[in-house]
């Protein structure tokens, strides 16, 4: 008994169980994995509760708006800062870079102002001239602490108490913060066309002292300028981008339709092309080997010349070309032998690809189901992102002692701004202040914010995997309805996609949630490993890095394996309506009994779909390139004037690839479903009148078998 006959019958020749009433996806179902379904619903309700709690305690303004040293938002309505929308730093020299300014707290007083300084000035100069030039004092005073109006106070005391900045320099607002107005003049860094400035402490300093901050700020500002130009390009070219994506959609549909007629041709052209290229390589290696005959030094071995950094040296040896020729000959022989021994399975794989194209032609609505999956995932991402932001901004203002003296023992300790002036800190550390540091808290809720963030990430992964699982199970049910229709398309049920979606939601939410849960756990572990790897990247412990690398590799492989098992388990769930574990087990053993067919079908499908994605993205990309570069005379007048033509071009190429991927993912699910149904058909039926095949006539012809009757023991 050969392997195909063994698939028809059991390993010992007995016929497999046959259900004469089986006609594809079972409609009389019962709920599966109910416990997991209940847990899943409870988790969703808890996730909603977590979002509500985060929304009650959080305040996204802490991320959007800058906060001054008193913990007040700049530009907040109904406060003294309602018209002061920009944050001003007393001494920006203490801030290392704009990244520190934005994400951390700069160790200097920060005030909300209505506008940034537009001139150079120092407190020393302004104090000396305030009697006869009060306008300068009035201008400078708006950058001092609110209510300060005592120009007679000594400079030392003012700088010690940080009542006013020691200097102001021309600045411009960016990200609602005042940054020095840096520019270059003849290659020299300047601020308002000046290369030096007074620091307000009796010294004249060079603008290059701000180079570290200037480099970061200029890069950010340049990025902002580029960003504005990119936005402008999108604003005037979005119409043509949508046209390009529509063309990609039509090409994807056309490719799927043509696969019914060209799948075999494309595959064999590629295979014979590879054989021909390898054959040419063998001939070229022989020609080089024969051409080097008699040339001095060409008969040396690789061992004789040792290791050489110049690879060309090895190409002067006959032994090198002989080795290349032997390797290519081995590869050629292996490919030819595989084609000889796997030709029937390759024909079955191509027939299944054609059958998949035919199935999609009958159930065209399946091509648009990825939009549903996309919307569900978009909702999950939005909810996760909003909840994460509210959790991150759930803290209360935390104030810390900021002292000018480096030896102050109270520096960086928490403090209360309302009672700070009554403590001994100001006496022991003259000039110390109680300023806003960050948002945090000591309550039970604030202590577990990190745990809540982990829970937020975990449930997010669970929901995303559930949305994907729901899509796979829905599509599998629809395509299984096609395969198990005895007379195609007459026996295909009405609205197979919607019926399959309803069955998946009504009966198998628990099973889909179970599979998604297993995958989410593995993905969360991978996220934690990546976090640990990022934190330990600077360590010199080689064993730790090696262990993390091994763990990351193992869990990556485990995730890939689980995705493969889950995908096929969802197909079995869609067909038979059993629980997740039973479906996964039956799918696994069914695939193992047809492991060679699985490997061949997987590779053939991957190749053809990858070829389709490249053809769609490449074809639309070439068309977009000629259009946006005005190389199509007919449309030359219609092309919008762009800052960067590559902006819409890359958008069209990437978008076309994603559109093709969305359509082809449906096709891949269709082929996988038809393959499992095909294997089940072989094991359930023998082609007789009592147990007829449900496969198409083309698949039946490829099997090359007549009607089989059960063998006698």
Q: Distance between the terminal alpha carbons, to the nearest Å?
A: 13 Å
Low-confidence stretches: 1-18, 96-104, 705-713
Radius of gyration: 36 Å
Q: Helix tally?
A: 21
**Average pLDDT score:** 79
Class based on secondary structure composition and strand pairing = mainly alpha
Question: Fraction of residues in helices?
Answer: 55-70%
User: What's the count of strands?
Assistant: 13
The strand order across the widest sheet is 12-11-13
Work out the strand percent.
5-15%
Shape: extended
Instruction: Please summarize the sheet with the most strands.
Output: 3 strands, antiparallel
Catalytic activity: choline(out) + n H(+)(in) = choline(in) + n H(+)(out)
GO molecular function: antiporter activity
Membrane topology: Multi-pass membrane protein
Organism: Chaetorhynchus papuensis
Could you give a short description of this structure?
It is built from 21 helices and 13 strands.
Your description of this structure?
This protein has a domain at 86-202. The protein starts with a helix and ends in a 10-residue tail after the last helix. Mean pLDDT is 79; it is low at 1-18, 96-104 and 705-713. It has helices spanning 3-8, 34-57, 61-64, 98-103, 123-128, 134-141, 155-161, 211-291, 302-305, 318-341, 343-362, 369-392, 425-428, 444-447, 449-483, 496-535, 542-576, 580-592, 595-628, 646-684, 697-703; strands at residues 86-89, 110-113, 121-122, 167-168, 171-174, 177-180, 182-185, 188-191, 196-198, 204-206, 396-402, 414-415, 433-440. The protein is built from 21 helices and 13 strands. The chain is extended, with a radius of gyration of 36 Å. The protein is mainly alpha-helical. The strands form six sheets. A three-stranded antiparallel beta sheet has the order 12-11-13, with no helix packed on it. A two-stranded antiparallel ribbon has the order 1-2. A two-stranded antiparallel ribbon has the order 3-4.
């Amino acid at each position: 008994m050969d392997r195909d006959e063994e698939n028809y019958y059991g390993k010992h020749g007995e016929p497999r169980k046959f259900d004469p009433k089986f006609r594809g996806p079972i409609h009389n179902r019962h709920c599966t994995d109910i416990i997991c379904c209940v847990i899943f619903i409870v988790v969703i309700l808890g996730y909603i509760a977590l979002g509500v709690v985060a929304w009650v305690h959080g305040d996204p303004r802490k991320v959007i708006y800058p906060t001054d040293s008193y913990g007040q938002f700049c530009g907040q309505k109904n406060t003294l800062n309602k018209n002061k929308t920009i944050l001003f730093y007393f001494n920006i020299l203490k801030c290392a870079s704009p990244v520190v300014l934005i994400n951390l707290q700069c160790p200097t007083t920060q005030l909300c102002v209505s506008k940034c300084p537009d001139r150079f000035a120092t407190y020393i100069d302004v104090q000396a001239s305030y009697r006869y030039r009060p306008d300068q004092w009035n201008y400078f005073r708006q950058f001092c602490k609110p209510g300060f109006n005592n120009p007679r106070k000594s400079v030392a005391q003012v700088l010690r108490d940080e009542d006013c900045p020691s200097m102001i320099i021309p600045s411009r607002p960016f990200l609602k913060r005042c940054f020095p107005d840096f520019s270059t003049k003849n290659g020299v860094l300047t601020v308002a066309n000046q290369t030096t400035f007074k620091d307000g402490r009796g010294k004249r300093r060079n603008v290059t002292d701000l180079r570290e901050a200037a480099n970061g700020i200029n890069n950010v500002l340049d990025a902002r300028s580029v960003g504005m130009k990119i936005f402008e390009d999108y604003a005037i070219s979005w119409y043509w981008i949508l046209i390009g994506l529509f063309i990609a959609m039509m090409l994807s549909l056309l490719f799927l339709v043509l696969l019914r007629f060209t799948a075999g041709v494309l595959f064999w052209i590629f295979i014979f092309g590879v054989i021909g290229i390898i054959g040419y390589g063998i001939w070229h290696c022989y020609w080089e080997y024969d051409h080097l005959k008699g040339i001095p030094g060409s008969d040396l071995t690789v061992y004789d010349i040792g290791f050489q950094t110049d690879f060309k040296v090895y190409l002067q040896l006959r032994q090198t070309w002989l080795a290349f020729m032997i390797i290519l000959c081995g590869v050629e022989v292996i490919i030819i032998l595989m084609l000889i021994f796997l030709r029937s399975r390759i024909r079955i794989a191509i027939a299944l690809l054609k059958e998949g194209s035919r199935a999609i032609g009958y159930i065209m609505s399946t091509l648009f189901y990825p939009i549903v999956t996309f919307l569900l995932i978009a909702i999950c991402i939005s909810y996760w992102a909003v909840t994460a932001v509210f959790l991150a901004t759930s803290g209360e203002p935390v104030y810390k002692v900021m002292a000018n003296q480096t030896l102050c023992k109270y520096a960086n300790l928490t403090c209360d701004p309302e009672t700070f002036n009554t403590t001994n800190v100001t006496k022991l550390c003259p000039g110390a202040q109680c300023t806003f540091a960050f948002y945090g808290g000591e309550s039970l809720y604030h202590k577990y914010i990190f745990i809540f963030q982990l829970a937020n990430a975990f449930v997010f992964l669970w929901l995303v995997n559930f949305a994907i699982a729901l899509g796979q199970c829905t599509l599998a049910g629809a395509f299984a309805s096609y395969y198990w229709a005895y007379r195609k398309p007459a026996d295909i049920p009405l609205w197979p996609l919607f019926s399959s979606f309803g069955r998946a939601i009504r009966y198998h939410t628990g099973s889909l949630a179970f599979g998604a849960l297993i995958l989410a756990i593995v993905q969360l572990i991978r996220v934690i490993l990546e976090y640990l790897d990022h934190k330990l990247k600077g360590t010199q412990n080689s064993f730790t890095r090696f262990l993390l690398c091994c763990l990351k590799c193992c869990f990556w492989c485990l995730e890939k394996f689980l995705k493969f098992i889950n995908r096929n388990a969802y197909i079995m769930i869609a067909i038979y309506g059993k629980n997740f574990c039973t479906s996964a087990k039956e799918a696994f053993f069914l695939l193992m009994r047809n492991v060679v067919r699985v490997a061949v079908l997987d590779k053939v499908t991957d190749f053809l779909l990858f070829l389709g994605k490249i053809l769609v993205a490449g074809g639309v990309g070439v068309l977009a390139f000629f259009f946006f570069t005005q190389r199509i005379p007919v449309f030359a007048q219609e092309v919008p004037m762009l800052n960067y033509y590559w902006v819409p071009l890359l958008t069209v190429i990437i978008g076309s690839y994603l559109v093709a991927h969305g359509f082809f993912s449906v096709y891949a699910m269709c082929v996988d479903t038809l393959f499992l149904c095909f294997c089940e058909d072989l094991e359930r039926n023998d082609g007789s009148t009592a147990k007829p095949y449900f496969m198409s006539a083309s698949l039946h012809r490829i099997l090359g078998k007549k009607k089989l009757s059960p063998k006698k023991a």
